[in-house]
């Protein structure tokens, strides 16, 4: 048996041994990151509304599917952002094409975007960890939650920030003691402003 045939046979057997639950997962798996790490890694941080979403092949690599998202910018925290921003995100799993990676027109989002690559691609830091959906209650109070339900988002953030002399507002400090679940947008934005040095 040649080396190539042996390698193909080995890979086929290995694939059969992988649990089906792992084979069925959509997208990529990412390491947990806290708010401080997400901010440090982000090139651009802003809040705004989705204007349009379209699925199309990458202009240079037609075999790569992408989602192109255009948003208005309501508030900027980091990076150079115009009143409107358009970015292109690679679709890792073809099953995510039907949902456009869960970007929907009129959605209000708080995004922490990675730097744009040489090929014009970006994505939220930590994928679902760097994308927060904004919802409002009956009184109009806004809340934010990321794709992991904010689990682990505040682990050790206060301690790390204190070592750098970062001071949080009272509502941000209260939020940082929270475990998980939706959080007041105003408190999250206070914390982001403190950690980025933006007033």
Tell me about this structure:
The protein has 199 residues and is of the alpha+beta class. The chain has a single domain (29-194), classed as OB fold (Dihydrolipoamide Acetyltransferase, E2P) (Beta Barrel). The chain is built from six helices and seven strands. The protein has helices at 3-17, 20-23, 35-41, 157-163, 170-176, 185-196, and strands spanning 44-57, 65-78, 84-90, 108-113, 131-136, 142-146, 183-184. A seven-stranded antiparallel sheet has the order 3-2-1-4-5-6-7. Helix 5 (170-176) packs across helix 6. The chain is globular. The model is unreliable at 3-26 (pLDDT under 50).
Short overview:
The chain is α+β, with helices and mostly antiparallel strands. The protein has helices spanning 3-17, 20-23, 35-41, 157-163, 170-176, 185-196; strands at 44-57, 65-78, 84-90, 108-113, 131-136, 142-146, 183-184.
């Amino acid at each position: 048996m040649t080396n190539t045939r042996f390698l193909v046979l080995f890979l086929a057997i290995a694939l059969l041994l992988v649990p089906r639950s792992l084979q069925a997962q959509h997208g990529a798996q990412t390491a947990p990151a806290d708010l401080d790490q997400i901010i440090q890694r982000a090139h651009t941080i802003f809040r705004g509304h989705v204007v349009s979403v379209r699925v199309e092949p990458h202009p240079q690599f037609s075999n790569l599917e992408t989602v192109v998202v255009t948003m208005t910018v309501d508030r900027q925290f980091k990076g150079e952002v115009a009143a409107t921003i358009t970015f292109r995100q690679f679709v890792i799993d073809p099953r995510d094409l039907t949902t456009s990676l869960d970007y929907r027109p009129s959605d209000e989002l708080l995004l922490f975007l990675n730097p744009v690559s040489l090929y014009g691609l970006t994505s939220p830091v930590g994928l679902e960890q760097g994308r927060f959906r904004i919802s409002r209650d009956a009184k109009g109070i806004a809340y934010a939650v990321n794709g992991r339900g904010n689990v682990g988002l505040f682990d050790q953030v206060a301690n790390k920030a204190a070592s750098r002399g970062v001071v949080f507002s009272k509502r941000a400090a209260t939020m940082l003691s929270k475990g998980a679940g939706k959080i007041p947008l105003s408190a999250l934005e206070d914390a982001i402003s403190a950690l980025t040095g933006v007033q």
